[in-house]
Structures are given as C-alpha cells and as structure tokens.
Design goal:
heterotetramer, A: alpha/beta, Dihydrodipicolinate Reductase, domain 2, 25% strand, globular, B: alpha+beta, Ribosomal Protein S5, domain 2, de novo design (two linked rop proteins), 16 helices, 14 strands, 41% helix, disordered N terminus, transcription regulation (chains A, D), kinase inhibitor activity (chains A, D)
Chain lengths: 435, 528, 528, 435
C-alpha cells in the first residue's frame, strides 16, 4: 500500500505558492466554502488565494473579510479578474449551467495573464457535450493544464481497490453489479432545495452527477472504458411533494423534469465484463440494503465497496476484499508482483479497509489539491516530468483533466441517446481524444 | 517500590537561571535554540523535551491493560516553541532532519480541531495528534477561552535523536513534547501541568492517526526518572511507579540497547502487523468469553469500538466461576495464580485451531454471521490477514503478563545471595519473553534473533526485542561496573553482526547503534 | 402433594373383559367401533383415547419453562385403529366430523419420515405430528426394526368432542392419542408405554407444524387422573404431579368452563398471535441478559434455534449477582423471592419503552445489526408485528409464574378456617391472571371479558380465559355442592351472554357451551 | 393469509382418482423420481400411476417393480401408451430437447383415448419458440387442459409476496433489482454433469432455466408483464475446467456454448417500473452477497426475497417485508382491504416469513399437483367452474398452462433477439394469446 505516501513537498516550499483565483467562493454558502477552502487551508503555503470574482463585487469583498484572506483582491469584472497576472490557477466553482458563459470569455481574457498555468473546473463541466467540447478546445488552445473535480478518483478506498485489482488480487474480473441512490430525486423535495437541480439541462441530475461520478470511479478502478452500453432513463415522478425540514408534507406539489431512475448495463472493453447498474432517486431507504453497493467478482476473489449515501465521491466507504492472491499472476508491466512475505499462496486473504474518522467530503478534494501541488512542485522528483498532460486516464499519478471529463460527458451523452433510440450503443471509440 | 505516584507531581520546569540544569537540557537546549533563531530569526519562548523509552519486559500487553516495565532513555525529542499573536493563527513546523519536510497549517478560527487525514503517512500527523489531545484538554480546563476560539499560533523547531522506526518510541516522545508545549503556549508561564494529566491525555493520542496502541510509551516518556525504572499499570487506574534496581554485591545492573537498524514503520505496516495483533487479541478475548458463557462488558461499558480485552475476560471469568466480583487490582500473588489459570483455559478452548481461525470459524464461536463479525471487529482500522491466530496471541499476552509479575518480584527483592542469582533469573524471563514474541506473537525478525544469540554467547544474561518488534531495537541484561562485560558484548555485536550485515557502517553509526542506557528524566520544560 | 410421578407408571390399558371400564371408554368406545366397522367394514384392533385439558392458572408460561396447574377434562379424542399388513403400507384417516375430509397417504418404503408441509393448514398435519414423534421414538426403541423399514399401515377412525379452536387443546388430545396408537400398532400388545415417555415425545410434536408451544397441553392430556389436578413442571425435568383439591367444610371446589364460541385457530393466527408472543418473550430474555451483562446459554447449549428464555435469565442472573450457580429447582419460597426480584429488573430495564421496541431498538440493546436480529430471532417461524412489547410480555410471564406458586401453596394447604378464605384467595389469583393476560399479554377478547364479568357478579370467585386465548374457553372458580351457586352462574351466562350474543343458540349447544368439569383420566387404551 | 388453506378435497375422494401416465419416470435417475413421484405419493388417492412409457420398456418394467406401482402398466410403444384409455393425465418429464418429437405424435395418437383430460409438461416446453407454438396449438386442438411446471408460482413465499403486493402493503412499486446465480455455468464443470445442458439449443441454459423461472415469478408477484426490455447475453467462458466430486481440477477443458452471464433490464407494463437483473454463471460465491436477491421497493414499503442458491423455484427462500400499511388503499376490485385489527395505520409493520423445514424441491411440485386435483374435483365448490382454462395469468387460483409457458418463451426469445440486434424491444404485445 504505497499510494498513501504523503507528497514530500514542504507545505512551506522554498518556491512561491500557487496563486489561486476563485470564481464562486462565497463565505456564506455553496460548495467551495465547504470543500475547496478547507483543503487550501491545510496546504496554506502551497496555495494562496489572491483573487475573487463574483457578479456582485460585494460578495467577494464580504468573503475576503469573513475569511480574512489577507492576500486576496476582489475584482469588479470577469475581464479584470481573468487578465490579472496575480493568478496562477483559476478555480471555477459555480453552477454548472453558467460554466460555458463564464469560462469561454474568461479563457479569452486570460490571454493577458502570462502566469495562468492551471484551470480547475467543478464537474460536470457544462450542461451538454457540445459545450464541454468547446470549453475543452478553448482551454487546450489557451495552453493551460486543466483539472476536473472527479475527486472520487482520489478516495483512499478507490485507490486501494484499484491497487488490489491491478496487483491481481481478484484475478480476471468476471462481473460487476452497482446499486446506487440519488437522494433528491424521489417523491419528496425539501422546500429549501434549489430549483435548478430539478430541471433537466442544468448539468445536475441523477445521470450526470450520481451515475457520472460512480461510473468514472468504476472505469478508473478497473482501468477500462466501456465497449457496448444500454440505458433506460425514467421520470416516473413528474411531480414531487414539498416537505419542510422535519419532513412533513406541505401539501404542495412541484414539477420535476430530471430523471428519478436510471437502468444502465454494458460491457467493459477489457475482458467483455458484464456490468449492471441501477440508480434510484429518493430518500435512501435503510430497510434491507445499503444505499451504495459496488460488487466486483473476479476469478481469484471478490471486492465490495459499500456506502451509506449514494454518492461514492463524498462518502466514507468501506472496502471488503476476500480472495486467493494469484502470485503467479503476470503483471501488466511484466514484473512479478511481490506476494507479502508470510502469506502462503493457496490460502484465502481477507482485507477490510475503513478509516473510521476520514472526512470524505473535504478529504477527497484536499487530496486532489495535493496532487496538483505534487505535480506543480514535482515533489516525487519524477525525471523529465512534462509541464502538462492531456488526461489522467487510468494512472495512479496525476489528476483528472477536462479530457477525462469530456470522455465521461460522451458516455453520459450515449446513455441519453441509448434511451432515446432504444438501442444498445457501441461506445468503444469515445475514449480517443481528438483535438 | 517507592509509593509516591504522579498525582500532583508537576512536570519539571527549568529556566536559564536554574541552579543545576538536567544534563539533557543543558546539553541540547543551546543548539536547538540557535537553530530556531536561524530558521525563524526570532528567539523561542521555551523548549519542551520528552524522552524515548526502552521496555525491559512486557511486550504487546499494554493494549490489553496488563502492566509493563519500561524506563525512559537518554534519547529524546525537543521542540523549541515561539508563541505568536496573530489574528488568524497558524502553526509552522520545521524539523532539523531534512527527511521531514517543513509543514504549515492554519488553526480553524471557530476553535474546532485541526483535521487529521488518517489515510496519509506524514510526520506532521503525529504533531497534530499531540495538538489534538492538548486542545481537548484545554477545552475542558478553560472552556470559556477555548470552546469557540482558536489556539495560539506557533513557530516550532523540532529536533530529536530517538531513531524513528527503531522501537524506542520516537512517536510517543514527539507527541508528549508537543502536548506539553501546546498547553504551556496557551496557558502561559503561570500554569504547571501535572505528569498524571500529561500522561492521561497522551496515552490515546496515536489512535487519531490510526495506530490503536496502549499507553506504555507515553507513560514512560512522561514519568521517567533518573536511575529509576517504571512499573506502569493501566488498571484499576493509570499509574507509573518509579523504582530503583536492587543493589548487587559487585556488579551493576545495566541494560545494553542494540539497534538492528531494520526500520519498521508502525503506521504503514499496521494492517498486517500492529493493528492486526490488536484485532487478534480482542477477538480472542471475545471467543473465550463466548466459550465460557460470560459477558466481557455489560451493556453500558461495551460499545461498537470498545470490545473488551483479555484482562476483562480474566475478571468476568473469576466473577462467574470463583465468586470474586471485584476486578483484579494488580496484586502480584493473586495475579500469578489467575494468569496461570488463564493459560490453562487458552489451551482448553483455543489450542484446537493452532493453524489459525478463519472468519467463519470466529463467527461460529461468537454465534454471529460473517458480515456481523467483519462489521464489528474489522472496521476499526484497516487489516489484512489469512487467518487470526487467537491461540498463539492469547497465550503470549497471558504468559508475558505473568513474566512481568515475576520480574517485578525480582526487582523488589531486597537482596540476593549472589549477583548471579539476579542476572540468571531476570535474564531467563527476558529470554522466555523473546521466544514468546518470536514464536507466538511472530513480531521478531532474523536480525533480532541474530543479535540476541550473539549477545547471549558474549556475556548477556537476557536478550530480547523491545518495542513493537518487526525490526527496531533489542535490549540486553549485562552486568555492568568494573568487572562487567558490557565491552565484551559491544565488541561481539560490532564484529559478528554490524560489520557483517552493514559492511559500510561508520564508527559514528556503530557508536549510535549500541548504547548503554541509564534511566533518564521524563518530560520537562526549559523556559528562556 | 402425592409424591408418585409417572416414571414407570404405564398408560392404562383396558379390554372388553376388564372388570370396571373407565366411564369415557365405556360410554364412547362402542359407538366409535360401530362407526369404524361401517367405514372400513372390518373391526378395529384397539381404541386410543386422550382427553382435552383446562388450565386453572399459569397461561403462556410453559414455553418459558415455568410450571402450570392444568387438569384433564371429560372431553376427549378417540382413535379406533386397525393394523394392516400390506407390502407398501399407507394410512387412511376418516373423521366422524365431515368438516375434516378423509385423508390417505403412503409410508415411505425406506422408513424415512412422512413429510409435513408446514405452509398448509390441515387436520391431517396434526395426525402426522403424532406419527412423526412416535416414529422417532420407535427408531430409538427398536432401531433394527424401524431404521430403514416403513411403519405398519393403518386404518384410523377419529372422533372427538373437544371443540377445536376452543382453547381446551383439541390438537394435543389428538396428537397424544395418535402417538399412543402408532406405538401400540407397531409394538403390539406385549409393549406397554410409560406415561413419562408418551409425555416426553408429544410435548414437542406441534413444532413440526410450525406452532412453537410449550408442553402443558400434552402433559395434562397424558397424565390426567380422576379427581386430581396436575402440577406440571418442565425444569429441572419434565414432571406431572397429581394432587387433590383441599377438603372444604361445606362446599366443593369446582370449576365451570364456559366456551365463548369464538374460534381462534392457533396455526393461522400464529404470525400475529401465538408465535409472535414466543418471539417477544425470547427477545425480552436476551435483552435483559445483555443489559445485565450475563450470557443466557453458554456456547454449547445455545444454538441458532435455542435462544434461551426468561427462566434461563433468572438462573444466570442469580449465578452472576448472588453466587447461586445451581439453577432454581422449583422450590416455592425461593421461587417467590426470585420472581419478585425479576419483576423489579423488568421495571428497571424495559419500562422505558412501554410503547414497544422497534427492530432497531432491540438490535441496539443486543449490540447487533438489524439484519442480525432479523436472521436470528425472526426466521424460526413466520411473524408479523409493528413493535415488540418486551416490557408487558416479560412482566406477564414473571407475575403469572409467581401466581402459580401462590396457587400451589393454597392448593396444598391442609385446611382453611372458612371455605370463603380459599375461594377468595384462589379467586383473586385467577382474576389477577385474567387482568395480566388481557392488559399485558393482550390475548383476551371482548367475549372473554364479558363472560368473566357476568360470572363474577353471579357467584364466581375467580374468572379467567384458559388456553392460548384470543377466544376459546373461560374457567370459573365456583363453590359446588348443595349450597353452591353453579346453577346461578350457568343461568346468568345463558341469559346475559349466550342468548344475547347467539340469539339462535339451541339448548343442546348451550348445554355444551357451559360444563362443569371433573378432573378426568389421562390417555388410555382399549383393546378389543 | 388465506392462500395456504389446504384444499378440502378428500385424499380419498368418493370419485375415482386421476389416472396418470408418465413419460420419463425412472426409479434410478432423473427429475421426476425426486419430485413428481413423492408429490403423488402424498396425494395417493387423488392420483394413481397407471401407465409408464420409455423408449426401452425394460426401464419402465424395472421402475414399476422398484416402486411397487401395483396399478401401472409398462407400454412398449408411444402409440400404445398414448392411445390407452387407462390414462386421464399424461406427464412429460424428459429432456426438453425431446419434448417436440415426443409430444406431437403423442397428441396425435391420444385421439384414440377419450379419457385424456390433462397434459402436464415440464418447463421449458421445447427448445424454441416455434416448437412451443406448435405444441401449444396441437394441445389446444386436441382439447386437453394443459399444465406447465413453472412451480415457483406455487412457492409459499412467492404467494405471500403476491398477497402483500396485491393488498397494498408496499403501495405502488417504485423499482426492482434481481441478482441471481446459475450454478453450472461457471469456470468449472463437474465431470458427471450431463453434456447437453452446456450446449445451446437444448432448452436448458442460464437464460431459459434460471432467468426463465425467476422472471415468470416476478411477473406473477407483481401481476404485470414487461413493456420494454433490453438484454446482453455473454459467453465469456467458452471452455470450462473439468473437476471431480471433491472439486479438484482434472486438467481437462471442455467446450461450452450456453451463456454464462445475462444482463437484463426493462420496464413493467403496470406503472413503467424499472427492473434491473444480473444473472451470473458459476459456483455461488458465499463471500459478501446471497446468491438470489430480489428487492422490490414500493412507495409504502419494501419487500425482499433471499435464497442460498440461485434457483428461486426450488429454494427455501426467506421473505422480508417492512412498510406502513396503506389502509386507505383502494383495492383493485374496489373494496377496502381490511387492516388487521390492532395495527395503527401510520406505524411501520415488519414481517419475516420463513418455514424452517419446508422442502421446496418436493413442496412446490406437490402444491402444483394439489392445485390440479383442486381443479379436477372442484374442491373449493367454485360455482360453474369451467372445465378448462387457457392460462393462469396472474390469478391466485389454478395453475400455469402451456399458454403461460408460451408467453414466457416469447419473452426469452426477445431476450436473445435484443442481444443479437443490440436494441431495446417493445414486448407489450407478447402476452396476447392468439389461437
């Protein structure tokens, strides 16, 4: 287990910290204040917040005061923000629906900022495949290293599962079942929940968010994209009942156009492995099943990931492994994976990997920032580390980029297409990036 | 055995004007202060120091609440600290050893704890453990000040000569020094922390980074006394009683420490070594309880994390079958009798599965399902195993605890007809302990075995590993004084082990690898 | 209390030449033999008979191993049997009551048991229960004959006047008669079965059809004796001790049985009634054990089906907290003291959830998961519930068992100054028992309550339901003899209950609904 | 719970018993001796074995002697057997592959037997849809009442689940997940296992047998056929390792053409309910999941059926129910379902239904025979009970017929078609029987 070695970069590097400009950091509410901000706090000398932009400058000023961001400036316009040379990395943490209209001009203005090296965008990188393709192209032309927050890839449980699979602990993968649950999309809607996540097209729904994160994690763990897929998308609950905080119905119904159930099945490119997925909207039922179950059956062993809520990328999961370690397993890169001394080959090994007090919501984003600073300061002293890379793909190292996001967008596009056309689609080509 | 214990005893504090400064402070403070100034170009306010420890006998039994015989050693960890007065406070850590990269993190303004990422292996996590236990101590000590306001910002310079991963408990030394420093930094010169409090809050500190150890290391580091070893007890309550070695006729009792230089990182090997052993002995206690129809902990005490231990089993067994409902208070004679009985029960009920218990075997003896056992026992911390060797682990814990009681009797015998008697008897206990650690607990390693055999044939009466094992240091009972054979042992080890195993070893490294440790002073403070 | 018990006592056998034939046989055998001949045009070889029973006090406590006070009544089940000598034997069942359709099934040639489909509700299943326990008894008695060869084929004609679903235990009467018949048919005239054996093998018979009841019904049916009630104990071993009612000055002690005519089918309502109560009291015992840190059954005794009961808890509690390691032997005085203590513990630990325990509540007190509790406690037999009322059920079992001990003391007191003393005291116990069955065990019904209130205001000193409840019969302590008020009670019930509730009731039906039961003879055989 | 009332027919009816002619009853081996024979034994006077036919008459003679069938005659030819007037009901219990070639001529010859009333055929009623259609038509023309052994419909657990659903205990069905396991179709094959069950086209495989029984049970419980379905059929294990009884590999590999994994998803006609199924071949792994799990989520409650082996129709299942009984639930036939007295409407009800010593292998077939005799002797005194019925469909009463089997065959046909065409198929019309 070596993936968990902390980068040896000093959190007080001799080199200057990465100067971060935030679009969407608001001390009062939102996702960034709960995750990006605490992560940067822990790496306080590798990242320094130097610029904030939000449509109303008062929000930025208030946030700077509230968080005492001594080195940060509030910018009145997107142009002034994007072209300011005080920024090395721009983080876009706003509603997916406004990604396109903000990032495209921002990249344009940013041409005046020679220091801009990184563009960090929250998943789901725009609401449609076309928007995602355009943003990707613009960023590539602009020549920045891109980052997408598919932070499930950084979860210690996912990395441990990836390690076990890649070191042959379960032999060849035989079949996979996933059952997940997307909290908001059931019969009842909390009155305070924001309207836009219930309207199709805003880039936040059961397929794009819940399924998107989970299927990206599955591909990453198994190091394989899909070859054929079929999907059925359901909106069996066109109207939801509004409820107050204590869960009592207010007797008012509100329209919902996003799906509340997804059936997805397909085969992995590597080994034609059958994969069966069922994602349910609605309050997670605690009755007889966990809300997130990923079962991976192999010829030499079984792996199981379980979580209480349906969101794999922000849950503190439990990993179960049981299998007979195939020490005669020729590893992908040819060399022999060393069997831990003291194990006799034939016997079944059991592993349970759970960190009782791991905060996954902050932790996974924190480790994503760590991997950015590892890359920036080349803490692992990797010889001739390229200044940029197009996509993480299935490497342990690095971080997911807009290309990884684009490939995931193409898969989600084919999910909707398969449902609409009522046909099984061949998706084995969506992972070839073409500039 | 001097009866005074550390209830009101204060952690010793010295300052530049102190008449006679303890040697470790006198020797090491000047250099660390100079290094602090060069790093932060400011003078530190004080230096907190806490030593490493060697354990004479009683390995892997503290987390079962059985008593141990450690002594603080002359290797320690110093933290030079400057208290800052910033609006949004942060802590900067610099370590003299470049291997440990500089770290800086902010203190949450709302007074909440600094989060520790248990999935990561980094030296700053250990600092955060000390910080956490001190912070929770301060929240209770002065809630009005620390409930919802951040601790003081600090600049810290750390330097230590306790070799890491050597089994001399560098992590405990570091954690105790940090906890002491954080309390001093936030309570100011007027507040004097008791040894008991420092010991109590640090014994659980390493759990925050995912190592479920007992309290031996911290107790020895805090309560160490010159020329005194320590009898550390965890139940009925946490107590450290210093005692002197018996006066022999014409030899001194001295212990040689030899480092195998095989580094064993407790955190990274925890799933197959340290934490796995904790799971095995906890499971053994519960299987024994199920077999003999007793309940380890009543509804109130037990919890999803507290599953009871082998000492609890001994108590409830005696309550049910011998009508003694008060738990064992540590009395030596009754302890020896009961531990002997426990070893009989272990043979009776666990010996039939010497090849080890599978998960199904254990679930069956506990009359619960696979999933239930996995959920209750295997999710406290990451573990990886093929079988759980309940028989061997339980047999080690009870026999080792029995040996500690016999060792204490020897140590507190007024006089011996011949020096040889002491050396022979105490040495025998140490050798049995090494055999048990090796064969039953499987926490020795080839290098340890090699060193022990060389030492035994060159003047050592008792040789064993010390600390968690799987590498790290060994301890040897060698008659000291003029006609002792310390030199003989050092000679033999240098030639037959170090120069063979590490041909390119330098004299300095050799010097450092084999030391004769005098029991040293525990945690203390030096105020500038 | 006459000390003789049924160890070597043989089930009484009579034949046509017997000097004086017991009344039930004399009255009923001729008619059943005639009916057999008309059905099979052959003469039966013998008639097996077993009576129903009424329970004076001690309801729903036999499956917790607490003692009860039943007596056999003058209603019984007769089976006329002809043993066939066919190559592939089968059993044909005809019932005098057309409601029970004729049944025929073959006996597996390899001597294996006849399968019972537990998912089906049919009278022939009860025959198969008797057949099963007799078959397994025969396999042990004469393995060489029955290990791998089928039992003898039979033609059976059944006729009984124990009203089904009336709480007078028609199922036990039937099962005991069948078991007796099958053993007699296969062992021949030379073998004489003991009452103890017949009782021992029939107490578990109904479990094969999915009703997890205790052994009271079968014990009373087998061991009944004229003019004697029975003190039936299950622990330390299964024992039925006949005793006579005390001689009063100028009244007879008699018990009136009044049938509510509300039929309650124990099998079909089991998931929400009978079997649910068995689950509730078993769960209560385990929650109490967990709360007070004791283990109900040691590893060996416990099994996936045997979860221990409230009597086991009493024993292990006294072992742990009062150093009395031998289980309670049934002694009345110590029993009263302990049961009183148990009621205190129930208040202390279960009273906080009077609204009932949810599955999560129970899982939490047992420190196991929802799934674990469901798997271990709820899959023994089908159950359906909203909450488990552990407090109320445990309180009923302990208080009812206490009342039985007091009732036994009354029954074995030599003399009473005034008849009124006996009637008042025994009546009070019965009324408390009815209140507890109604309010705590919730197994009464409006008709039962109505009949009891009418009887109490018309000369009955004690009125309560008898048997499982939820309908069926009631029993009333009424002074008999010349100046008794049996007629007064019968009158009142007829006018204020039966004619009101069942306007079209015929005199014959009324005659049958209210009977004065004299303790009757237990199981017996009549050979032609 | 009233489905479990035992029929009141006397097992010694005044009328004559149904005389049964068996094709395929062999005392030495096979399915019928383990299930049909013990069932008839328990109903010994409602059914009487009067005739046996097997290609080699010695087999029939030996069976009659072994089982001491005093009233049975061994027939030398299919013709003599089929036309003998001593038979009221013919039971076909032979390999599915020979169903067509035996049943077609048999029906023809049977025209000389005026007494033939019942034709009982083992699932899977022929190896293809065409054969099944032909057999169905021939039997219909011949005018016999037909029976198919979809005996899962008679399992007490399935009937109890059907009762709970139909009485509104789980409200509207929201989503369904099924995970099953077909023992023989994995990496290893017992050397004694018959070859034909590994060759596609013999009517015995993971889709026809394991999936067939289970999906029929699902439709029966939910009283709904499918509207749209998609399937992916896999043969990832073209060669299996031969093993001996103790499971050691013999070092010999044998070809397999039947599938070893099925992915199936679809929507139920009633309520557009999403259904996700994954059927795995191979030794049931006991590691972290049961081998048969059926989860049915509803708006008012959840139902779960679990079994140790993957075969729902022959396993002793456990039924879990938890939900709040909707007592205001207007029942299909309009009248109010009585809520058990003593339950307060709002509170959650929990039910666990398991019969510890129920022998499902014999029991379900036994109850199928019981339903035949209930029909034959009209034990439930149903006024104007028709002499024949075409299909059971979703009734509690009666038994499944060749029409029910035909509809299931059409669904299985569309499973293979969907896989071959790579498309989602509309199957809402397959349940209309057309003569």
């Amino acid at each position: 287990m070596d993936y968990n070695k902390r980068s040896s970069v000093s959190t007080v590097p001799n080199a200057a910290p990465i100067r971060v400009g935030f679009v969407g950091l608001n001390a009062a509410k939102g996702w960034a204040i709960k995750t990006h901000y605490p992560a940067i706090l822990q790496l306080s000398s590798q990242f320094q917040i130097t610029a904030l932009y939000s449509p109303k400058i008062e929000t930025s000023i208030a946030t700077i005061q509230r968080l005492k961001l001594s080195n940060a400036t509030a910018f009145p316009t997107l142009e002034s923000f994007a072209s300011s040379s005080t920024i090395d990395m721009i983080v876009i943490a706003i509603q997916v629906a406004s990604h396109y209209e903000v990032v495209m001009p921002l990249l344009e203005f940013s041409k005046n900022n020679p220091n801009l090296k990184y563009l960090f965008v929250e998943w789901a990188l725009a609401c449609s495949l076309d928007q995602a393709e355009s943003i990707y192209k613009a960023a590539a032309e602009r020549g920045v290293q891109t980052i997408i927050s598919l932070q499930g890839r950084k979860s210690p449980y996912i990395l441990r599962a990836k390690e076990l699979i890649s070191q042959g602990y379960i032999g060849d993968i035989n079949s996979i079942e996933i059952a997940g649950n997307g909290g908001w999309y059931g019969y009842e809607r909390p009155v305070k929940s924001p309207k836009y996540i219930y309207e199709i097209g805003n880039g936040v729904d059961l397929v794009t968010t819940t399924f998107g994160h989970t299927i990206d994690i599955l591909q990453y763990m198994t190091s394989s994209y899909f070859s054929r897929i079929n999907a059925m998308v359901f909106n069996n609950i066109p109207e939801q009942e509004l409820i107050d905080e204590r869960g009592n119905r207010l007797g008012q119904r509100v329209p919902k156009t996003v799906p509340d159930h997804l059936l997805f099945q397909g085969t992995l490119l590597n080994g034609n492995v059958p994969v069966s997925c069922s994602f349910k909207g609605g309050k997670p039922t605690k009755k007889f099943t966990k809300n997130l179950v990923i079962d991976i059956h192999g010829t030499k062993g079984d792996l199981k990931l379980e979580g209480d809520a349906g969101f794999a990328e922000i849950s503190n999961l439990v990993l179960y492994y049981s299998g007979t370690r195939a020490n005669d397993f020729p590893l992908a890169n040819g060399q022999q994976a060393p069997l831990d001394p003291g194990y006799d080959a034939g016997k079944e090994i059991m592993e349970v990997y759970h960190l009782r007090n791991y905060n996954a919501i902050v932790g996974n984003i924190h480790r994503l920032y760590q991997s950015i600073s590892d890359f920036h300061f080349n803490t692992k002293k990797i010889p001739e580390l390229p200044s940029q890379f197009v996509m993480q793909g299935f490497d342990f190292e690095g971080f997911p980029t807009l290309m990884d996001a684009l490939i995931l967008h193409r898969l989600i596009e084919s999910v909707y297409k398969s449902n609409m056309m009522g046909s099984t689609l061949n998706v084995s080509n969506i992972s070839h990036y073409s500039l | 055995m001097t009866k005074s214990h550390s209830e009101e005893v204060i952690v010793p504090e010295f300052n530049s004007s102190a008449k006679e400064l303890p040697r470790p402070l006198a020797e090491k403070c000047p250099s660390i202060i100079k290094k602090f100034i060069s790093a932060y170009d400011a003078k530190p306010d004080f230096v907190a120091r806490s030593p490493g420890r060697v354990n004479l006998i009683g390995e892997h039994i503290d987390y079962c609440d059985f008593s141990v015989l450690p002594l603080a050693i002359d290797f320690d960890m110093l933290c030079a600290v400057k208290v800052l007065n910033e609006k949004n406070p942060s802590i900067t850590l610099i370590n003299a050893d470049p291997k440990f990269a500089q770290r800086k993190f902010d203190l949450p303004l709302d007074g909440s704890y600094v989060t520790i990422d248990p999935s990561v292996s980094d030296w700053s996590n250990y600092f955060k453990c000390g910080l956490h236990v001190a912070h929770s101590f301060l929240k209770k000590l002065a809630p009005e000040r620390f409930a919802s306001a951040p601790l003081a910002g600090l600049q810290v310079f750390c330097e230590g000569d306790v070799p890491t991963g050597s089994g001399l408990s560098s992590s405990a030394a570091f954690i105790c020094a940090v906890a002491l420093a954080v309390v001093k930094a936030n309570m100011g010169p007027g507040y004097h922390m008791s040894k008991q409090n420092l010991m109590r809050i640090t014994v659980v500190a390493e759990h925050y980074v995912g190592v479920n150890n007992g309290g031996m290391d911290q107790a020895a580091s805090v309560c160490g006394e010159e020329d005194h070893a320590l009898y550390v007890e965890f139940k009925p309550q946490l107590k450290a009683t210093p005692f002197k070695f018996p006066q022999l006729k014409n030899h001194e009792i001295s212990f040689v420490i030899a480092n195998t230089l095989v580094v064993s990182n407790k955190f990274e090997t925890a799933p197959t070594n340290y934490n796995l052993r904790v799971v095995e002995v906890t499971t053994a206690a519960n299987v024994l309880a199920a077999t003999y129809g007793v309940v380890l902990l009543s509804g109130k005490e037990g919890s999803s994390t507290n599953k009871g231990n082998l000492r609890d089993f001994m108590n409830v067994y005696y309550a049910r079958y011998h009508n003694i409902s008060t738990p064992w208070n540590g009395d030596i004679e009754s302890g020896i009798e009961r531990l002997t009985k426990m070893l009989v029960l272990v043979e009776e009920s666990l010996a039939n599965k010497k090849q080890g218990f599978s998960v199904d075997d254990v679930a069956q003896s506990l009359n619960c399902s696979r999933e239930e056992f996995t959920r209750d026992y295997l999710t406290t911390s990451p573990v990886r195993f093929q079988v759980l060797k309940l028989y061997q682990r339980a047999k080690h814990v009870y026999s080792e605890s029995l040996r500690v009681l016999k060792a204490v009797k020897l140590m507190t015998t007024a006089s011996f007809t011949a020096d040889e008697d002491f050396f022979k008897q105490f040495g025998a206990l140490m050798n049995e302990s090494q055999a048990s650690c090796d064969k039953l607990y499987e926490c020795s390693c080839p290098e340890i075995d090699k060193i022990c055999s060389i030492a035994l044939s060159n003047g050592s009466y008792g040789s064993r590993l010390t600390g968690a094992g799987w590498g790290g240091c060994t301890v040897h009972l060698v008659p000291g004084g003029p006609n002792g054979n310390i030199e003989k042992v050092k000679e033999a080890l240098a030639n037959e082990f170090y120069k063979v195993k590490y041909p390119k070893i330098t004299d300095a490294e050799l010097e450092n690898a084999i030391i004769v440790s005098k029991p040293a002073l525990g945690s203390c403070l030096y105020e500038l």
